[in-house]
Batch of 4 targets.
Target 1
Amino acid sequence: MGKYKVFNGTNWVDICDCQVNIRNANDTWQLLNPNNCVTKYWTGTEWCPIVCTCICETNYILDPVTNECVKQTTLPATASGGQFYPIIIGNKVTSYSGKGGALYPNITNMALPIQGVQVAGGTYTLYQSPYPGPILTRTLSVVGNQIFNSDSTTTKGRLNISTIWGDRYGEKVWFTVRFCVTISTTKTYIFAIASDNQAKVNITSSTFRGGVTSLNIVNIWAGYTPGSTNEFVDGPFTYWHMLPIDLPAGDHVFELSGYNVQAQAAFGSEIYDISVTALEALMASTTATPADLEPYILFTTKDLVQTPPLLLPGPGQTGITYTCPDGYTFTDCNGAPQCVSPPDIYPCGDTPPLPPCECVAGEVAIGSQTWKCSNLNVSTYRNGDPIPEVTDPVAWDALTTGAWCHYNNDPANEAIYGKLYNWFAVNDSRGLAPVGYHVPTLVEFQTLRDNLGGAAIAGEKMKEVGTTHWSDPNIATNESCFTALPGGFKTDDGTFYGINTFGHFWSNTPNSGSIAPTAYGVSLVHDSGTFTAGSTAFSTRGYSVRLIKD
């Protein structure tokens, strides 16, 4: 499809160019939306739909429902309570799934939960609720089927491949795991389950049946009649029960529980994205293998076998408490407790939003350099000697030694913009910067400029965004996270000028070709994206200072 071109009235152009105007089926010109599946082009004999695939930026995933590119970050959740239990593959014995796979009618609109009951002689029947409700008819896999029938190796039989149990979890307690399935297309899926003891499944979903919380959908009982008072008894796997169910698009959380009777509970579950007709064909085959079903598996309990072990409530515990950072949402799907950030979303075809700046320990890495994220705000040299504050303009103009001041001599400006220093303080042998840092050379500023794409655009990438501190218009993205601020400056005669408009920063490079003491600085301005690295100024000027790591 991508090889086709359309005529825009002047030239032939690729159909996926979103700026293309095409003549549509109504014989009028319109702007092509590359993600609009009803847009059509003329082949010469017929109108055909244009379908272009949206390609999201790195780390973004296309949401097929909204046609948006989405990115979320995850962090481990902080847990209190619970114990670590290894989940391992269950015993591989020939009695598992001794009677093969059983396929039932669609349970979506049935009275739930479906009750599976094993009675004397090994007869196993599924009923609608309340028990004993209508019996569910079933289709069984043929004798010799390798996908669902029993086998003593992991190469055959879904139960022997997917069955799990919790090591050292104890007897006569429910062992519970959770897993999540994200459905992109509303349709019929196959939910499969079996257990050698008892098992039950709950679903929490915002879309299934209009939204449910912990809805019990299936109970599998071995040697037990629902509603009776007899103790649970141990029973072997008999069937690999497969239940068609209509799942709407969205996230669905399944809670799968196995009851331990005489040892650790062994149970298995899988969800298949396969049609009933295709599944019946696999069940009727004696040559198909478990590998033939693999492409259709959306979830298998085998995936819960992981290192490190899962943190689960111990027998008798009510649960585990998890905490997340502010703004993050907790999820424990697949037994991996995580904190999920709010999503970054942009429409397919647009430019993704810039990531938020992360100033770690007051520093940001740009290329091979590490810069401080804020302006210098010290009143002593590295050795502890004080740097004098000079507020008198005449005294400031006469200085030949280091000094500092606040913009407009107003201490309220210090918290945001830091202090303004003359170049004599920058050049003082006692060191203006704390240990581990230094005032950058002009060459280091020029390296920063080049790392950010050159003088014409580097300033835009360095300045804090918005008009909280910079005057409007402020041409800024701050994608470098340098967060340059417009601290203004103090002129040679002691006059203050340019706060909210200019950001001037000293380098430690002197202008050796000048008769009067001058040095090199760098500058940014609110209404431009440029970064000027190399202008000279008298050493008595008061500029901001931004440090670089040694």
Target 2
Amino acid sequence: MNNNTLLDLEIPETDEFDNKDSVDTLHEIPTINFCYLLQVDGDPEFRLTANSARKDGATAEFTAAGWVYLSKEDADKVAKRWSNGKRKIQVVRWIDLTLDKLWYGSKDESKIAKKQISLELSEHLNNKKKQDIELECYISGLHWSWLYKDSLPEDMSEKDKKTHAHYKPLWEKTIENQEKITLKQSDISMEEEDVKNTNKNGFIIEPGKIHDAVNAAEKLLKHSSIGVYQRSNTLVRLIEAKHSPKKKIIDDEKGNRILSNNGLIRSPESLTIEEIDLYFLLEILTKICIWKKYDARSNDYKIIDCPEKIAKHLLSRKQWENIPVLRGIIQSPTIRKDGSILQKPGYDETSGLYFQSSTKFPKILEKPSKEDALSSLTILKEILKGFPFSDEIYGKGKNFSVALSAILTALIRKSISSAPLHGFSAPKMGSGKSLLADVVSLISTGSRNCVVPPEKNEAEEKKRLMALLMEGDSIACYDNIVEPFSSAALCCALTQPYYKDRILGKTGSATAPTDITFLATGNNLRFAGDLSTRALLCVIDANEERPEERSFDINLYEHIPKNRGEIVVAALTVLKAYIHAGKPKQKIKTYGRFEEWSDLVRSAIIWVGCADPCESRKEIENDDPERVKIGNLFVSWHTIFGDYSQKVKDVIKKAEIESKEGNEDLLDALLEMAPDNKGGVNPRSLGKQLAKHNKRIECGYQLEKMAKIQHAETWRIKKI
């Protein structure tokens, strides 16, 4: 490590604390490779100063509370000098890129101490750099005192002016760094004092100072081990589905699962985000702090429960300066927006994600090659080889690519702004489409899908979707869809980074991030309307009368959990290798609204030699009943009228005449587009439909609104 560079030491959070809170409890802090520490045992109040060390001939670098930072030789000298029967000086080396147990105190005090030690190291190196700059300036022929001056004399030589111009910005940079360090140190001092005073002495409720009480409550939550976060203007916590207060246990062919009050079906171990209500907040505030209030009868302060008004005021803030923002939950490592790897469990300040998993994941390569990516692809192919994709060559067709895309997308969905829906279809039940959807979830989350039953009522669908987004699920699967699938609310969630709507069972609205991987399954699954432009489709076909009787070589529900660490790392290696290669541009068309997904997931799949998953969009569009209906109207209309404009009533009349003569194509198209309750065509409804699709192009024809004739609108369909 270069001692002339300012040390910006990252302080990792750790939950590996001892149960005791005594000052001699040791905790973990990050390590460096250029200094030694003297730890004072048996006397926590003892402070070995730098001056004391110098008396023994040591050159002490600087002092932090309870520690002196020395060279190895000097550390041995001081340790021998000060060690006696009452106290023992222990020399501990900081080893580069490792963690040694070096600090003491309670959990909160240890965290503060870690921050303090980092800042003192930074301050020391910054001061040393400042001194080195002044020395270099002096050696160059210009006295260092000129660095403290902003103006120079006119008679100063050009050489001295150039020297000043070179060293002055470097010197000022150290001043700016010192100001930042000082500011952070003052923040730590205030934080340390607040935590110690509040935890040990309790908080005294005083009239007219409710703002102080609420501020104290917020800081207490920040330092508590409860795990409180803010999300969508609410305070939240993480909870397993089986512990949710609003649950019902169901037992089906997929085992025990949890049915929530909003109709969503989850695995019991699924982690969800639960809003903290008033009563739970009162409970935890009373638990983590001693609240006191003056009692006139006893002329003393008495201990009370946390006052309800403090919890109410805290909840009403909607934004909290000291509470970390929770963007979502992940159950596997992921790749951040900047391409870095998130593999450390717990809350990640950079991304706002909380990573929790019982699976042990191998270390992900920082700079994998394309050969590494191809080797990893083989592992993923092994997982999917039992599914009868309807492509001719296994691993090369679009259906395999869609399945692979779903796996990769689910692992990095929190790091991209939008992603298409992945659908799994089969001509007959029992072919394995639900299993394939579960494979995506088992790899990404370690549990089965959160299942969303189809909902025809759009208003209810919006409320349920909002609840799903608020609870932070990573994957949601619309299961066993029968009719052509369409949803205006889902269309918004697929393309927009945030979704706003009413919360189920409550008044008012909320805003939640939409970074969920959406899946859908169904027999001969079809997408209708706008959703058809936001979906990919994987088709599997066993070509058997009883596909449910087929057997797989491996039981994926057992194999994936056992080998999940290797599988996840393999999937992320494919993406990381593509990023490390510079994300070479692929010869593909833009996929509007999903550019980030296309530039990473889609391009990486093509880069390793697989088909473009977007090839499945052609099949989706051809099966879209909305497109088919409009295309039939355009073709039959143009066949009769050519490029000439017509009134709506004239079109209906001509269609009826043509029908009597045996040409029923136009009348059938009009009846499908705008039927009335008498078996005919509704002119008003047809006019609205034409206005809705004005300028639309289908099957090589375009609808255009033309000039009015006798106050009636006219329309034409032209060939393009």
Target 3
Amino acid sequence: MTTDTEARPAPAMREPGDDSPDDVDPLRGLPRHKLPAEPEAECALVSDVLCGFAEALPDALRIVTPADFHTDNLARAWAAIADLHARGEPVDGVTVGIELRRRGEYDRTLADLIASMDAPSSGAIVAYAERVARAARLRRLAEHAAMIARMALRHDADPAAVAERFLRARDEDATRAGAASAKRSKQLAVPLSRFLEKCAERIEYLAPPFLLRGTFVLVVGPPKAAKTWFVAYLAVSVAADGARVVFVEEEGRAADLRDRILPHVAPGEPRDSLAIVFREGIRLDDPACVARLVAECSGAALVILDPFALLHRGDENEAAEMGPVLGAVQTIIRETGATVVLVHHTRKGDTWDGGRGSGASGDVRGSGAIVAAADSVILVQGVPDAQRVPGEVRFRVRNPSTRNAEPFAPRTAAIKVVRGGGLAWIADDSASEPEGIEALLGRVLAALPTDPAAPTTRDLMVTAIGGRRESVLKAIKAGIERGDIREATGKRRGLYRALQTELPVPGTDGNRRTSGAASVPGSDRFPPGSESMGTDEGAVVPAPVPASPPWGAEPGTGTPDSPDAHFPLPADPPAALPAEVNP
């Protein structure tokens, strides 16, 4: 039996076929109690915070992370303290206990919390944090040293690989130490001249026109809309210029990700500057995990996180729970200088159908804080069935929200699903200027029934008119406010058009006329069944015609002048519709 002062026997040489996983436990064989640690300082640090000495807590949080604690339960308590502080909530014994109970970690941390409360409190939080951080650094160095020693003692050891591992350990330690030192000595306020010196003279793109350097980009779209295909294209494009890219994928199979990347990589043309983190359980609401990810992304120009739903354990609809998650994204940007692309879903609604609607930032699922935190939002949508081509993946991208530059023009991508097939941008007829509310209201009025006993719903009007759901609902709201559209009450609720409604004169966007029937926008003729009647002023007013929508008509069977030809409504109302959305 050896004592603490006796030399430790050298590890035995590894024999061929010994595949013990050194990377799983590089400190295997080293007694845990002999590793550098400051258990008394850890207890005192947590104790001071729980007892209300929280004035210096921001400084302590810059020095120590949960990963720096040697005692696991105190690390959990420190993670709860960090999250409470990030959310701007009070930090004391009561609030920390409530937070731990919410996380389901209260019972297993209780004993160590009680022990920490027995530690003497002096309020020297920063001093304790410095001691904890120093011990954590020594433990990490011991881990690196043990790993290097085991690599060197293998019978088939490669000196170059051992040296590379040593240099990587040295660089990682230097990076951590430099970042920690900068946090402690950072001056909060700087003169304007120094601030301007740090600013770039112009906006610098990483992948024009989609990505700016050092920004937070949110890529959103309905499920199966080719979001991962698009971000894989961005990743390979940036890596092709020699920049380092880290692609964090927490969903699907490895083969699925491979198939999305290889169309952009020609045979014999590796992209080793693109690194993949595949289903490693990355969580943005875990400070220890974020610290590990920041270290992994050192030197990266682009970091892709896919999908958002699997990168946290919080409630997306709660801004308070999304705060630490979005703060982690900003931490990655601040510590690495990389552009971060976060892949997320839209709500079920107009953009759920990839062939309809143009979407907006408000379609993003979850709290509005998610969109508010992003510098740019890129919407990815599928294309209609008529535009699909066998052997290709096609999708549309547009830029509904950005704070850094002009939004890029909508465009459609076509990816050939073979290795090296590449991506081509094709003409996008749907990228034209959006229709004005006045013109859209004219189309809505033309399609509405006038019989209060047979009203229609907002959802059916969106289906009939086409285009963005949000715009159609705005047009309906404008019509209701003017009195042109009325809402039926009673058993059959819905919308109908007032009998004496001014419809836009065809071919104009503001001149209106009184009519009891629907004219057809985009045509200078009237629906069948109306008769032109001259007036003293020379205006043309059609006689009334039946105004109920042609539900019984077969789609596409109307005459060239009939409303059904211009506004194809379904032959039967859809069996299942999304919940009605009131404007």
Target 4
Amino acid sequence: MKANLQSESLVGVRIDNYSPKGIAFLVCSFVVGIIGSIIGGSHHIAPDIFWTAHSSAFMECHSYDCVPTFHGALTNMKKMHQSLIFEFEMQKPCQDRLCDGHACSEEEQTIDGVHFWHSIEAVQNQTGPTNHTQFFCGEKTKSTSLEFDMEYSITAWGTNNDGSRNMLATDSKRTRTVTCPSGQFDCDAVIIFVENYLYYDTYHTDVSFTHPYYGYIEDASKNTGISVEYCLDESECFEYLQRIAFTADTLIGKIIGVFKMKYVDKQFTMYEFGWKYGMLAISMVVFGTYMWALSKTAPKYRSYEQYWLAVLLFLLLFFNDPLFVLEIFTPGPFWSGLYVVTMTLYLAALLLFWLCVLDIVRSKAYWQEEARKLGWQFYLPKLVLVALIWTLTISVYFWVRAQNYNDPTYSSPSDFSNYRIVKAAALVFMLVYTLWAIVLAAIACYVCVSAGETPKRPFLFLFCVSFCTLLVTAIGAAIGGFTPRPVYTIEFTLFFSILNMYLWLMAFAYTPAASAASSNSAGDDASSDGGSATLQMQPVVAKIEARPVAPARPSFDTEDPRSSSRNEDELNL
């Protein structure tokens, strides 16, 4: 493939004719659009994505074989709620202990080679746990970080108003790692159940804990005087407490926390309808206008970037999710999966576009306005990197969704053994891409300066906008801003809007100017008439200007008008 970069052979575009005031207006319009999307996605204006139903839980066990169970039901579910997430947020076990109304004094002791801390008051009074069975959540509890495994089984089913019932999970046993960071009294929420497609009016869940693991360990410390917070970092001491806890019959284990049933707010679904279909309508107008203007230009006058923009504008229509109404009212893996494929395909094409044009700009052949053939050596490395990012993203999505569709209790971070490896690989590929793009941009700037060229302001504007959008896209991909179900409304509006407005701006800038299109038509007519070719080609030479490329090729100062007569004479010869 040959990159058509010779300025004298390309059609003039709108951005060529813009004055500094016009460029400033475009900058302000783009910035205002971003600010507007941020304001439109703020919690003061836009609805929150999830609505949460809370249910507090206090469960006790008086023996090791006890299985505390929580039952919950969520009614009046509609398809507009889109999805359901069932979480458990456990309260951090209190570790501030009282001995006879004051803080316990502790010292280190060794028993059978096991090192642990014990309460001095308990030994002196020889009254066992009665002196320090009172625990409260104070500064020690808040400053302590804990991590332990919690075992439970879940049974879930859905019912409709007509009485039909369908089992979603039956006694599904899971183990989740509970993390309780320092600086707070609550542990991080653990996902217990996820339903991505809502088919039923009411959802029921029974969660049975195998045993309140940490509760038994805590009560074992009451009987022995060993402080759990000092024992967590010593495996021998912790195992010693476990043996005591599992063999005792009178210990009391507790689980205190909050069960949360989160589902998409119907108001956000309506907000999503308006935002997506509003963007889709504008994108259709932009695409139609751009293609109509481009069709009036002969193919030999079209640039490399204009062909790319035609493809990207077409993919943008699918990025805006035209089948969103089917995803809502006919829920299922097909429609949502189709949208994920088209959305990620647009992002991959955008990433490939930026690498291609940056690679062209950093070439000296570009600055010297020479033709450059783009073979497989040019495209292959870029295609491999972008394909790896796209394939990895799609594969993980479909794997997790397929597992979750068959078993709603499946959780990718906990049940997908290679989840961390795959996530790390995706981040590495995205980092490699970002560094590659930065290096290409730096080389382009160096070549421009070393060649003594001074790009016009329109080119600098488009180059900066493209590069900033590239960085925003990389950040959004790294933090999950383009997931099918975002967590925050502002994420959805910001990243969604930026990728739309960027391409609208590029299409506006690279739409052939009306005068240039008519000049091309005149030039084509002149070529078809051999006898009068010389006379009809003269106005074409005078009107065609060098045009900028974003981020590929800038337009430089136009030729001195006084030299036009010399050029015409050369043409006549």
